[in-house]
Amino acid sequence: MVQFHFLSSTERLLVLKDFLYKFPGATSSLLTVVPSIMPNRKEFMSCSDRHKRRRANEMSNEFLGSDNLCLGEQEHQERYEVNEGSLDGSESQHEVADVRELPDSDVSVFLASDEMPSESESDPESDSETEWDPVDILDKLRQWAASGVTQTKVTEVLKILGEHSCFNGWPSDARTLLNTPRDTPTQRVAGGEYYHFGVESKLLTHLERYPQLKELEILKLHCCIDGVPLTKSTNSQLWPIALSFEDFPNIPPFLVGLFHGTSKPNSASEYFREFKGELTKIIPSGVSYNGRRFSIDISAYILDTPAFSFATQTASHTGYYSCRRCTTKGEFETSHVVFNDFDAALRTNESFRTRTQAGHHKGGSPLEEIPGTDMIKHFPYDYMHLTCLGIMRKILTYFMMGSLLVRLPSSSIEKMCQLLESLASSIPSEFPRKPRTLRELSRWKATELRQIMLYTGPYVFHKIVATDVFVHFLCFHYAMRCYVSDTYCQQRKRARNLMAYFVENFSKLYGKKSVSHNVHALIHLHSDVDAFGFLEKVNAFKFENRFQSLKKLVRKCEKPLQQIVRRESELALVPPKSTICPKNAILGNAERLPAGMSLPAYSKCVIHEVSIGSKAPNNCAILQDGSIVIVNCIATRENVIHIYGKKFKNVSNFYESPSKSSNVGIFIASDLARPDMWPLTAIRGKGIILPLRTKDGEQEFYVSEIIHSVGL
């Protein structure tokens, strides 16, 4: 056995280096080996394994290059003896021990019996996985600090870390860590402040961050402009200009301009000056990236009615000539302007630019000067504002406070509220909000109104509202499911007729003054479907999510624009979230699997952007042939992922008029068959399943296929 306490200081240090490389993590008893060269033991023990090895390297280099080497040589003159148990008692050889040459039994010289390294600790490959990289940790800290933590708290953390020697050289202030701009030049325009991020610079950044964009030759962009109130107690508001990619809706929208003031900009020409000037240059020539040139095309401006009126300098929604698609003239009806003419001449890009109908225009629009802009076709209606926040909220309001033809008694309102509340446990994960009662209608968000318009409306209104009112609503519901979904948009001709019927009969049920600008605009939705394929491609949901996130970046009332600009600069340090569908979640502790299925098993699988699991309310799958399956298990069969569940034997229409509900994915299902298996490729989508009633001893269910883009 080698007695290491007789080694010189130099030899001890070399042994320490070798040991740290072979047995990382097992260093608590090493301090007894090198007491003369390791004065600060606590500091050494607090370091990571990688840092200990680096520290040993540094100390050995310093030691061998200093005067201490003489001391080491002097100590080495007093040779130690190694008793190797020789029977002849001959003089043993003097040698410097190398831990890499020691047999495993002799490692106990360094360690106590309870400190022996495990196999994982002594494995060089496992050691590389646990190595501590200061640069990597600093990057992760930077990303965390940019994700919404206040700079005060980040600075406090940095100061605490700076007290430790491992973090010497790290920034001590959050602004240094995040590369926060020290100067934020803004412009005084249109009665407020404006900052231009730049279109070309943002496009180049996205080409760098998202490799899938490089597959395109033409970058088709959607532009959205809207007002965002910062607080409820002041008039402080933002007016951002944002762009998104038409071909990649999962890539979040990005800002190219931002205005702040106490009202909306008072001059459209000043507000759009930087935006228009840059597009005028880059649209004809394109954007150059890595030797390739990408063409730029803004194919749609997604604006609500007030923003459209401002951007195009046309009459507001209360004006007589406010329709953006036709030349109809409104009529004054008891303090309201109503639109009952549905056959007026349509506007064209040429008639818009030549101001054929002078009453429609308030001035020249700066967007007309952007190359390639069609002032009619490139301005589709946003169904989020028009149909969800507009028409659907109007219908529900009339149910509570409308004329006697549609107003519901308090008992029916209460029944509807209870029914809505009971749905909360049956709403799958694709819906960010659970249903609320009508008593909170004024606080409903657009996603809640979309939910009742496209999915739960027939279920909730059935047998509560009058038959004629219910059928009238179904015309709107059926048409919107055709317009929104790429699955059912082939029925757009049928949808157009139903929507025309809905608009023409709206005044008969809800009163003459109810046919407002929004109701009239429904007859023009079919042209947007013809131009863009389906309405889900040109909606403002993702833009609204982006705009609302800006409010969270303001941490005090002073200079909100500068704060947002600086936070946006810091957020650029955060890597983009994956736009690829998340991986299937493997079920670690799978219980008994059905016969014919094997591990791995899954708690959920993502297909066609929806998550299908084995537990309610996320276990209703719609197959390619239209069958409805309740999934009980997801596992593997012959190396292919399969779902295991029960298919409904009886599937029928929930309503027959105005058209069969099964044509737009609305069903009644009952009577489950024996269990069976299907591969994931057999799945078309996912459904909402709600209990209906018991008929002939069988439970019936209302099933509605999910058709909107998930996450929006």
Commentary on this structure:
- The structure is a single chain.
- The protein has 24 helices and 19 strands.
- The longest helix has 19 residues, at 383-401.
- It is globular and about 90 Å long.
- 33% of the residues are buried.
- It is an alpha+beta fold and 712 residues long.
- The chain is 34% helix and 19% strand.
- It has five domains: 4-129, no CATH class; 134-177, no CATH class; 187-327 and 342-381 and 540-571, no CATH class; 388-531, no CATH class; 585-705.
Gist of the model:
With 712 residues, the protein is of the alpha+beta class.
Features:
alpha+beta; 19 strands; 712 residues
Instruction: Give the biggest sheet.
Output: 8 strands, mixed
What is the helical fraction, as a range of percent?
25-40%
Number of helices: 24
Instruction: Give the percentage of residues in beta strands.
Output: 15-25%
Q: In whole angstroms, how far apart are the ends?
A: 70 Å
Structural class: alpha+beta
Cα radius of gyration in angstroms: 35 Å
Total of domains: 5
Anisotropy-based shape: globular
List the uncertain runs. Answer: 1-7, 25-39, 66-130
- The chain-level mean pLDDT equals 84
Oligomer: single chain
Give the number of DSSP strands: 19
Topology (elements, then pairings):
Elements: H1 9-22, H2 41-45, H3 49-64, H4 68-77, H5 119-122, H6 124-129, H7 134-145, H8 151-162, H9 174-177, E1 187-189, E2 192-196, H10 199-209, E3 218-225, E4 228-229, E5 237-245, E6 254-261, H11 268-271, H12 273-285, E7 287-289, E8 292-302, H13 305-312, E9 331-333, E10 336-338, H14 349-353, H15 383-401, H16 410-422, H17 446-461, H18 467-484, H19 492-504, H20 506-510, H21 517-521, H22 525-532, H23 541-551, H24 560-571, E11 585-587, E12 598-607, E13 610-613, E14 620-623, E15 628-637, E16 640-653, E17 666-679, E18 683-695, E19 698-705
Parallel strand pairs: 3-8
Antiparallel strand pairs: 1-2, 2-6, 3-5, 4-5, 5-6, 7-8, 9-10, 11-12, 12-13, 12-15, 14-15, 14-18, 15-16, 16-17, 17-19, 18-19
Helix pairs in contact: 1-3, 15-17, 17-18, 18-19, 19-22
